[in-house]
Amino acid sequence: MIRAAVRRANQNKRLNVKKSMVFLILFLGSIMLLTPLWWMLSTSLKSPQEIMQYPPSFFPKGFHLSNYIEAWKTGDFTRWSLNTLLIAVVTTIGNVFVNAFIAYGFAKVRFKGRNALFVLVLSTMLIPGFVTMVPQYVLFSKLGWVNTYLPLIVPAFLGSAFNIFLIRQFMMTIPNEIIEAAIMDGASYFRIWWLIAMPLVKPALITVAIFSFTGAWNDLLGPLLYLSDEKLYTLQLGLQTFKGSVQTQWNYLMAMSVMVMIPTILIFYLFQRHFIKGSNISAGMKG
Amino acid sequence: MTADQAKTRLPSISLSPKKTRAVAPSVSSVRKRNLIGYIFILPWLIGFVGLIAGPLLFSLFASFTDYNITSKMNFIGLENYKRMFTLDDMFWTALWNTLYYVIFSVPLTTAGAIMIAVLLNQQVKGMKVFRTIYYLPSILSGVAVYFLWMQLLSPSTGLVNQFLHIFGIEGPSWLFDPNWTKPALILMKMWSVGGGMLLYLGRMQGISPSLYEAADLDGASGFRKFFHITLPMITPIIFFDIITSTIGSFQIFQEAYVMTQNGQGGPGNSLLFYNLHMWNNAFKSFDMGYASAMAWFLFIIIMALTFTNLKVGKKWVYYDGGDDK
pTM for this one? Predict the structure, then answer.
């Protein structure tokens, strides 16, 4: 009896030691991951003199919030923010509705060649984007779309393999009986898609919306390739050119970086659950 | 355009299904269903032909010409490929730089993501907060992140070298030293392994606790449990992760473009990655024919790697549902 109790106590002790170890490792790791973000914030608030100082200070001596205003004025950042917002909103709308439309076809309409075509959808995920970039540029420039937002926006209305897959996974779980009943009642496929399927897959749609909005917000490649008129710039492109003009003014660079990141962090904070859900769906498919 | 098409066809279809509804679907209803199916996937079909298949074929053709976007396409046979393999030293530099990056970053990020997922799968106080913190860096991307890391990796005042200094280590010049530029980018990549971590964590949480309980009864150690239960169960994710991150790492571009002087390739061309070289050929010198040849060679490399992964994967990936796909 006593021996068993001692053993249990030992086991508990070992378990507690293990738990504290895990906690400690996770805690130190968290600090390492968060310090860069703190550094960004702290640098963005420093005066130019303080940045030059060696060794660098971990906490800024004064809060130079004026850095943010000064940095904002170095370029047409107000315009660029609005441009970026416009592109991000439009591509998000395209991504959500068009991919949901396509996904419904693959999930709930039995048509000839469906399975083969779906395999084709999945296999396009393996094609590196850079391979199609050169010919796509040729196509868009022949269409006269260079220096417009069309090359950034139109593809979002033509489906993307991963989003189709993600929404389809959700749509597959809708019971066929519901759909059959609706057909019996004379509802068209399109009404069923819009009135029955769409509300049922809302979590997937939100996930797609979040990913495409943040994706468009942070995209540099597309704008870099297609936009050369400064009036049309996006934030990422503006930020990138900003680097060349104020090479050493790290406080400004960091202040701008903080501002550009804020929307993404805000979205992450508000929709955390959906970020995680999206990842779990893709984990499910590989099982 | 496609949404409009769909809308204009909507009324004509919505009228009919109720009368053709029967136990065994008639020929006309099958035909109708086929048509409706294709209307649903029409946007994708247009995108596939216009943005993927068409461009792929076009660039294959262009790779045998001296096309420069304004010129006619003169057929020059294998000249571009010959130039690539025998005359262009930078091509080999770029390929080597890219391979270096892939070979180190893929295993390191995979292992890192698994390790963190194991830690985050324990029952410890504050786990929700920890998970958020570890995931956070992976959602941050774009130019701001590259700026941040240029600052962190600054040789004298950067945080990384300041940290190393505490342990008496003289940190390298990172982005200014050709030997350290690529490790610098890999380090930056490691910061955001949280995205992959989440996939592993999701899978680990789905492993039945009874497996671990059985192992506990047998007195298995934590390591044994990891190697004999956890690891086999997450192989499908590892497999997927390796395939996608290999494809992704092969296409590294933005980091090098932003963190060097406008894509010039960094000190000693040490950050001239494959895609950067291709980009410069395509959009700086408008040598579209040559860039297309490079694009196709990249395509072939990646396809070959993916197929190898798929083939080899069959040997080590464990699916609990048995032999299905």
Answer: 0.87
